[in-house]
Amino acid sequence: MSNPKESIHRALDSFRIETPSWGYSDTGTRFGKFHQPAAAIDLDDKLADAAHVHRLTGCCPTVATHVLWDFAPGTDPAAVARKAGSLGIAIGSINPNLFQDQAYKLGSVGSPFEAARDQALAHIIDCIKLGQVTGSKAVSLWFADGTNYPGQDNIRARKHRFESALKEAHGHLSQDQIMLVEYKPFEPAFYQTDLADWGMSFLTAKKAGPQAKVLVDTGHHYLSQNIEQIVAWLLDEDMLGGFHFNDRRYADDDLTLGSIDPYQIFRIFHEIHLFAWERGGVYPEIEYMIDQSHNLKPKIEAMIQTVCTAQELYAKAALVDHEALLAAQAKGDIVDAELCLKKAFNTDVTEAIAAWRTAKGLAADPLLAHRASGYAEKAGAERAKRRQELGIATEHSYA
Amino acid sequence: MSNPKESIHRALDSFRIETPSWGYSDTGTRFGKFHQPAAAIDLDDKLADAAHVHRLTGCCPTVATHVLWDFAPGTDPAAVARKAGSLGIAIGSINPNLFQDQAYKLGSVGSPFEAARDQALAHIIDCIKLGQVTGSKAVSLWFADGTNYPGQDNIRARKHRFESALKEAHGHLSQDQIMLVEYKPFEPAFYQTDLADWGMSFLTAKKAGPQAKVLVDTGHHYLSQNIEQIVAWLLDEDMLGGFHFNDRRYADDDLTLGSIDPYQIFRIFHEIHLFAWERGGVYPEIEYMIDQSHNLKPKIEAMIQTVCTAQELYAKAALVDHEALLAAQAKGDIVDAELCLKKAFNTDVTEAIAAWRTAKGLAADPLLAHRASGYAEKAGAERAKRRQELGIATEHSYA
Amino acid sequence: MSNPKESIHRALDSFRIETPSWGYSDTGTRFGKFHQPAAAIDLDDKLADAAHVHRLTGCCPTVATHVLWDFAPGTDPAAVARKAGSLGIAIGSINPNLFQDQAYKLGSVGSPFEAARDQALAHIIDCIKLGQVTGSKAVSLWFADGTNYPGQDNIRARKHRFESALKEAHGHLSQDQIMLVEYKPFEPAFYQTDLADWGMSFLTAKKAGPQAKVLVDTGHHYLSQNIEQIVAWLLDEDMLGGFHFNDRRYADDDLTLGSIDPYQIFRIFHEIHLFAWERGGVYPEIEYMIDQSHNLKPKIEAMIQTVCTAQELYAKAALVDHEALLAAQAKGDIVDAELCLKKAFNTDVTEAIAAWRTAKGLAADPLLAHRASGYAEKAGAERAKRRQELGIATEHSYA
Amino acid sequence: MSNPKESIHRALDSFRIETPSWGYSDTGTRFGKFHQPAAAIDLDDKLADAAHVHRLTGCCPTVATHVLWDFAPGTDPAAVARKAGSLGIAIGSINPNLFQDQAYKLGSVGSPFEAARDQALAHIIDCIKLGQVTGSKAVSLWFADGTNYPGQDNIRARKHRFESALKEAHGHLSQDQIMLVEYKPFEPAFYQTDLADWGMSFLTAKKAGPQAKVLVDTGHHYLSQNIEQIVAWLLDEDMLGGFHFNDRRYADDDLTLGSIDPYQIFRIFHEIHLFAWERGGVYPEIEYMIDQSHNLKPKIEAMIQTVCTAQELYAKAALVDHEALLAAQAKGDIVDAELCLKKAFNTDVTEAIAAWRTAKGLAADPLLAHRASGYAEKAGAERAKRRQELGIATEHSYA
């Protein structure tokens, strides 16, 4: 196999990670929200923060937007795209909000109420159009739909409603757009979630049309479920559309990537490198996106941390000696096959990544560079003042 | 064994369930809150709703209060207690809020910051005093304390801070008061929760003092953990202080009791009846409290449903033939021993409970009686109007 | 809705449950096996026991066989079928053994070794032929295949091996036969199981051919996974082939049905009744089979208990008022919709089932009838003696 | 902080790991056992293998024994100890077998049958005496006791039986001996396990006496439970007696250490290093033992792999900068505190450990040294032949 440093640099060259606009503003749990002075207030702040992270890391050229929170009525999406462009970034995936409006009490496209379904579908179609105007590739669908109590609704009827809505929405996609269909076992639906696992997303996407793919959120699985196996199956079926990066220990904890189980993330990346290696180095098109909601770590630090951790684990996974692995597997030599992975995982890639960054004109350590930049302090002072002017409460809030 | 109907009536005669003030107002998940016109706005509404539920069920004579949300600064607690009394109920357990204030970002009594710890302890002591003024017996402590990332804080140092704070707080209890120490595996702390399981609550309560007991929330356990065994151990150690009733399928879902796994609740009640039977019919003092946060079911209907389900499962568990069970266990006859439980669980107790209610001058079916009463419609109309007058937004909110 | 007793009787009339030959012999955990004198020694014993259970319950006309354990080399399958027929039962599903031979150390059809794959495929084809000779309808495939350590084998290569093998096997099915493809999250594979969830079984069965369907084992799911939702999806996709009945609390515990969570089994049956009701009373063809491995309860008692529990929960689920349910769902009335299920579940169906049995000339309580029959004592005495004659050790054994 | 290499070497100098005799012989799952020619047949083989592993690693001076499997009736324990000594190792913890005998069908010291309880207690006392004769320090108690069905036995009665038995057994300990009390949530008991969690082991050990401590098996926890927190609590209460090392993904999978989640094991070691650092470098007395049952990897390779992984993660954890950590924690700087752990975990310690080994006259890579030694081939040839002579079946077996 080739030189490790080269492998790492080649891997990083093509590895792009999208940061989420909502990851720059205050978030919380149902028990409350802890405010940070430097948290973004509006879309301009979010774009500025995303551009800052991209300047520091060099690998975050797009920012995911959340339509309800980012595009206030009357906003000109084309202007937003231009604004982003002027900051050196672009608008990434478009995320409809299908859970917050009072109309969605019993679901969005899965609701028993036609009005709610119509509203949801119209919003999805609006988002598709918004994507076309902003030059965004992916429309990323997460549904909170489901039921909270046995008997609450007809599971198969809800399934049919989903199939019908996504098929219709798919018809509005331009040729360049893709539709990502996310799954999640539970929360906020606590009895049954309409798209609860990869199999449900897979079947629903298949019925929607050829531009619909599955979105894997690393925090949306049953305890002990093998995520890298799901990734391998989706790759094999040409149905892996993208990722939402985060980590968790219990439920959908939305922690920074690799903070709880870095080896698992490494193994996911390994499946992707291996798949590409078998195809002569051709990597599949995958949207790598961050979706975390760390309410304690400073927002921008947390974002940089996840980006750097993703690079680090992606780089480590690029070090697996595929030929040696294949040979060990063919002999049924479990210990040697496993050691191919462990050796790569145990390699300290800090310096190789720093060298890659330096070669790109980036700071060797983006977190330190961020801290040295004074960005957070400046934003904190300015935004705290603006918050006061706008009369935005920063004291306790409760869901 | 005695007549089933008699067993049921005797069981219900002494079974009291406390409803929570916060269960009458709008709640939600971190993804939003769905508003109900009839949801309580202020403490007066909550007391009225609790009194209504007690009138219908005859077994909910107390209402748990949540200090931060219920006792606005300047409130006269004695007046609140009188108000409750005038409605036919009394103030039940006092619940401090140790998670919402910005000071508690890194914890309350477990925080690394002395100021946060002092504020938390002072609030607990205030709650103890409030309990004395309102004639409440239990101070019910739930801590959101913990850490979200490995290394964030010193686990043993946090343990010591808890031990010290609860010991000091215990010193402020009157002889009539008890301190209930709740545990919860996770949320909102996602790496480590300071009181994560019954063992941690047990040890902490033991060190606090003799009036401190463990509070078991039926939704606060690891998946597949055997709750009735924990209940049996706590009974045996004289450390079971009370329950928070709700049900769940995944995490702390806060659904209405018995909606997902009624047999489990039955088995918990069975352990209590069995314990009492072995002591000649002397029941331990246990605070039975509801803690649910159903954001879709109508609030009062959900409350009545949980109360009725608790009665139903408590009544069924009272039907277990303890002598037959003991005999089967002594012979190691697994099938017959299990059938003692299944037979009781399978008995339809609807009519026996209806008869008990009728004998008490209550409606046979509290839910139907509530619907027939027009209470919800009336409250809905009045509260919607008041909300408008108060300028309370009822549209989308996000945590 | 119709008369409850009629609904129950109509439901029971068409409800057939297959008992497994291996459920009559000694089984255990990896920590040991506890011997029962009355446990079956050979296929004759198993057929006799299965016939006894069918005589008592009237609803177990077939017995599942496990090829390796039941059909010793040289056995004439046609003779076995005749033997069963003479006892009043028939041979049910054929279960290959693809895990026990030393060749299967790294898997059967998923093994990296061609010889193992060939041996496995040949065995499956043999089983299909065996099914044709014995007049059995279903070939039931459970694979222990998977890997124990990261890197051990190529997940996608294993997937392809499965697809190829099952497609080839499918070609050998007669028109009357079906192929059931089971899934299981883990054990004995502890890193990755080749068919780990319903989605994997679904895709694999689809690629195998139109006579391949998914087999749902009620104990083979991730903790908290919603089994009835999977059942509803499979029904909707016309891919539900059958069930393996058992219950569990933690992993694949193989306890008797409904012993831990009866309400869950009820909800599964509810999905089936509801599906049939929507189709004008036409029930889908589903193989209901028992697969339990209770190593403590007396074997035949445990079997009867599961059969009776299945009938009981199937009967309760038949009592759901579908029209009322539909109406409540259409209005979004969660409480009323849920009560449709709870009311049915809470109905005591003991007497209605006893009446159905009496009308069929069966004992009202099969368990009591079994005990009164002296069958177990007689079998115990005879088999203990035979074991001694055969020199079969009945003392401790360890896996 | 001190030089990393020094920290690593100092850490390794005092780190001893006990290998288990049963880890050298064929094991399996309930679905079968895959035979290895080089697997140990008898105690002599096991001692030889353990001595071989100690020669290669220099840190495994003791071997845990399993009384039932290792000490056949008539064995002279003193002779066994001398034999071990002549091979350069010593007898480590003594493990009674309290689950395999037919008498233990319903439990050992927790059984409802007095005869079973007496037999179990007598066996424990024999083991204590055996430990005294062999110069072993720890008697390590794992109980399979529990129940499989609701109602099967009285949970509190079983608790009392445990308390009484362990107290009596404790009275037989010499001053040098300790009693380790293990816990496990389930398997082979599937409804309720008598010592199911650390709290139950803790209370039971406390009541037994001052020489009883808790044994933490890294595979015996609920999914998502935080093991390092339990370790921290036990350290703080002076109740941590030892570990059983293995890894798992789902249940008690008994995989080699760190094969699934190495960061978790690192965090456990971190708690121990931190505890010692706070006490001025005084490490608590902890028995580090391996308990794995890998039935696919070559036995000795798997043992060496776990030993090396334990050293590697213990060494990494020794690199945490405790002063920097403390400072970050005191400031509530979550990111910096976490980075103290991540930096240490990401350090490649391969060379530093190799240097430590070389300095001790050991091979730099024990696994390679083992393979180069030809030990397995030689043992395989000899043992295969001996197996044949002894008439030991090596073909399929089923529990």
Automatic annotation (TrEMBL), chains A, B, C, D:
Organism domain of life: Bacteria
Domain Xylose isomerase-like TIM barrel: 78-271
InterPro entries: L-rhamnose_isomerase, Xyl_isomerase-like_sf, Xyl_isomerase-like_TIM-brl
Gene3D superfamilies, alphabetized: Divalent-metal-dependent TIM barrel enzymes
Entry coiled-coil feature ranges: none
Keywords assigned: Isomerase, Manganese, Metal-binding
Record carries keyword Cytoplasm: no
Protein name: TIM barrel protein
Upper classification of the organism: Bacteria, Pseudomonadati, Verrucomicrobiota, Verrucomicrobiia, Verrucomicrobiales
